[in-house]
């Protein structure tokens, strides 16, 4: 089989021929990695981008079109992946900046022990949550268990776990008000998107 022929290569990818996929990896991995490196200037990030592109190409292989150059498609995919990552990182940086600014405002309001006092208030409000809600919230946010692990551990559905975590955040937000959101962000940074 001559995979150097674009149409033959694409045709074999579409039908799920793993040899065609291996040929694709062998032929383009190093080139795409070098290209990604010019975009991000970070070896680990470049490798992540290229890996994502190859995985996505294989998963979506049935959507490939024979008339398109596979090489152009791969380079364009690397560029698009870079843009997506850049936008995600930019959004995250803006979010962090927003909370750092809020933290500055909170810190200006009082003495240097304010952070400790605010964290104490947040923790005492967590203790006032309804028992089931509190238990799930602590397993998730303090013990670092995933929703699946919690559902197996407590023998409840994943939907119940999600509902209880959302309920906990709702209660805490209501009880503590705006200025405590920054502290909640610091304690439970993985949930930051729910506090925006």
Shape: elongated
Please describe the biggest sheet, giving its number of strands, its sense, and whether it closes into a barrel: none
Mean pLDDT: 79
CATH class of the largest domain: Mainly Alpha
- H/I helix tally: 10
Q: Label the CATH architecture of the largest domain.
A: Orthogonal Bundle
Helix content: over 70%
Strand content: under 5%
CATH superfamily of the largest domain: Winged helix-like DNA-binding domain superfamily/Winged helix DNA-binding domain
Residue stretches low in confidence (pLDDT < 50, at least 5 long) are: 106-112, 189-196
Count of all domains: 2
Q: How many β strands by DSSP?
A: 0
The H-and-E topology, N to C, reads as: HHHHHHHHHH
What do these coordinates show?
There is one protein chain. With 196 residues, this protein is an all-alpha fold. The chain folds into 2 domains: 83 residues, Rna Polymerase Sigma Factor, Chain: A (Orthogonal Bundle), CATH 1.10.1740.10; 85 residues, Winged helix-like DNA-binding domain superfamily/Winged helix DNA-binding domain (Arc Repressor Mutant, subunit A), CATH 1.10.10.10. The protein has 10 helices and no strands. The longest helix is centred in the middle third of the chain and has 40 residues. It is elongated and about 70 Å long. The termini are far apart. The C terminus is likely disordered.
